[in-house]
Amino acid sequence: MIDLHAHSTCSDGTDSPRALVNQALIQGLTVLAITDHDTVDGWDEARSALRLNLELVLGAEISCLTSSGTSVHMLGLLFDGDNSDMRVMLEETRDSRIPRMIKMIQLLNAADITVTMDDVIAAKPVGATLGRPHLADALVKLGLIKSRDEAFQGLLNNDSPYYVSHLAPTPEEAIKHIRKAGGVAVIAHAFASLRGRILSAEDFEPMVQAGLNGIEVDHRDHSGLERAELRSIAHNLGLVITGSSDYHGTGKLNVLGENTTHREEWEKLESFANERRVVRS
Question: What is the model's pTM?
Answer without folding.
Answer: 0.86
